[in-house]
Amino acid sequence: MSVAPAPRTRELGTDVLVVGAGLGGLAAALTAARFEHRVVLTEATDWPGGLLTAQAVPLADGHRIELDPVSPGYRDLRERIRDFYRRNYPLRPEPFADPLLDPGLSTTGHLSHEPRAALAVVHELLAPHLASGRLTLLPGHRPVAARTDGDRVTAVTLEAPDGEPVTVVAPYVVDATDLGDLLDLAGVEHVIGAESREETGEPHAAAVADPLDQQAFSWVFALDHRPGEDHTIDRPAGYARWADAFSWETAEPGGGPVRPVPLFLHAPDELPPWAAPPNDRWHRQRALARSRYLPGTFDSDITLVDWEQTAYTRLPLVGAGDEARALAEREAREQARSFLYWMQTRAPRHDGGHGYPELRPRPDATGTADGFAKSPHVRESRRIRAESTLLEHHLTVSARAGTAGAETFTDSVGTLRSRITLGPGTGGGAGLDLECLPFQLPLGALLPVRVENLLPAGRNIGATHISASAVGGHAGQWSIGEAVGALVSYCLEHRLPPRAVRADGHRLASFQGRLGDTLGLALDWPDRLRTGPVTSAGPLYATL
Q1: Is beta strand 172-175 parallel, antiparallel or unpaired with respect to 454-456?
Q2: pLDDT band at 63 (very low <50, low <70, confident <90, very high)
């Protein structure tokens, strides 16, 4: 009897391994490469960019992003997306000349765009570092194992697209996966789900901790509108299971009154006032507004569907085992497909009757065969047990009443303006929407309590079920990744472990100087902005 030989493991060595090429991983890799360190950046899909690309969630920053002291790297990302449209699309003169060009003119942000446009920009950002040889990109590689030695992660093994193992050895490892997968693989102390009020002291925390109470996730898909045509998909096998839950009614964040929200309130190519109620769904995450372009260029808008009806809450993604995770992903996709079928066949029409068979999936917009994103829109991750933990009452207007602003952190590595926004999750209950003051990102929240050389670069930082939503959006992930990339670079140059930087005042000041002087990051808010909350919220499931 012949025995098949065991697969040979290819091994790579580098200075920094970044697992996950979402916005946090991308920022970490670019920053480390900028300081001339060798970087291996891996991505489970074939589209680096995370939220912007593989998950099909365009930028959803509020209007203040144009005025606030934003990271120059993040502002550059935003401006490159605008420039991509100016260089490649036949825009009308007025939007072309607008310095705040919004290609999609959605009602959830001021810079909505197609996933593939963001992908082109991501490749532009990576190109010079790939050409220099400092950065190696491994698309289609997912982590399957980690090797540790005491309090250090010494190597990570990934499964390549052909099924062969690839092991990467590096003195520093960055976990930028959507779910904090390396925390589990490397045995890094972490938290999942909802903490109790007794544990965190947060005003809105649950009375009893529930690790399986996690935020909903969803499978985004792209559509255009083709009047007179029929693009009805096959009825999904599990359609009956989901259909009764679909409705054009939605509750306000925090469990407010139910109100009807139609698919179309305006014609698809009209320009509704930004975020002016009453709103409709078509414009909520519109990625391409045909009225922005010369007549005849496009027959339809393109919109991205990430609405309440596609928010999956039956099973959590982490904590219940690999089989439960796979089942949850399959069911979430089936739920989203069932909603599409319902829209095409049963949704009440704005002009009378039922069903919009003219809604056409757009596979080209998502780089897939069916118009659905390559990976789900994840809103919650495993979170490290950190040297310090960001809490609800560090941030919110209600908890900080009578103070000069959000909690001040002397170890600040960046600033953010966001909201705490949670939809109903796998534990049931109402959603939560809290105003936050402009706040700082503390270095202590990036440092695991024990492990020396693995750092988080996403929703997996030292935060809670509640507070993590304030740092999990596009700007938050980028800011975390940028700080982590700068930190590993500093540690490599000075031969220090990350916690030694925070523990020594002189070293901390030196590192913070690099953040400010070299990267241009603001580490605190000007007094005139410190007490200004985020004053508007987008639709619940269009936020992060």
Answers
A1: parallel
A2: confident
